[in-house]
Design brief:
Structural class: mainly alpha
Protein name: Dolichol-phosphate mannosyltransferase subunit 3
Membrane topology: Multi-pass membrane protein
Pathway: Protein modification; protein glycosylation
Number of strands: 2
Keywords: Coiled coil, Endoplasmic reticulum, Glycosyltransferase, Membrane, Transferase, Transmembrane, Transmembrane helix
GO cellular component, one term: endoplasmic reticulum membrane
Number of domains: 2
Number of helices: 7
C-alpha cells in the first residue's frame, strides 16, 4: 500500500526520516512511500490509555453483566478483583525496578572531589573579599 502524504513542516519530515520511512521529494512536496502507523504518533499517555481501555472495557462489560456466560459466572470474583491485582503487580514491579537501580547506582568519586575543591576555592575567594564564613 502506497500512502502519499504531503508535508510542509520540517519536523514531520525529520520524524519520518528517523523512523526509517522512505521519502520522495518532488519540488516542495514530500511523499512517504510507506504507511504511517498509529504507534509512530502515539505518546506515552495514549499508550497507557489504550492499554487501560483494552483491559477495563471488557472488565466493565463482565462486571455489569453485559457479557454473561459460563466462564464469567464461574470466575466472577477473580474477574472483579482483576484491576486491583494489576495495580498491585504494577506497584511491586515498580518497587523492584527502583530498588535495582538504587542498588546499581554509580558513585561519582571524581565529581565529588572536584566539587569539594570548588567549594574550598570559593570559600577562600570569599574570605579574601571580606566575607566571614563559619
Amino acid at each position: 500500500m502506497v500512502v502519499a502524504l504531503i508535508f510542509s513542516e520540517p519536523l514531520a519530515i525529520e520524524h519520518l526520516w528517523e523512523c526509517g520511512r522512505r521519502l520522495v521529494c518532488k519540488g516542495d512536496l514530500v511523499y512517504s512511500l510507506f504507511p504511517i502507523h498509529l504507534t509512530d504518533k502515539m505518546t506515552k499517555l495514549m499508550e497507557w490509555l489504550t492499554g487501560a481501555f483494552l483491559i477495563l472495557g471488557p472488565w466493565t462489560a463482565v462486571v455489569s453483566k453485559t457479557i454473561q456466560n459460563e466462564f464469567t459466572d464461574k470466575y466472577y470474583i477473580a474477574i472483579l478483583i482483576f484491576p486491583v491485582i494489576l495495580v498491585a503487580i504494577f506497584g511491586l514491579v515498580s518497587v523492584a525496578i527502583i530498588a535495582y537501580r538504587v542498588y546499581n547506582f554509580n558513585d561519582c568519586n571524581e565529581a565529588a572531589e572536584e566539587l569539594k575543591t570548588q567549594i574550598k576555592e570559593a570559600k577562600e575567594d570569599l574570605t579574601k573579599k571580606g566575607l566571614k564564613l563559619d
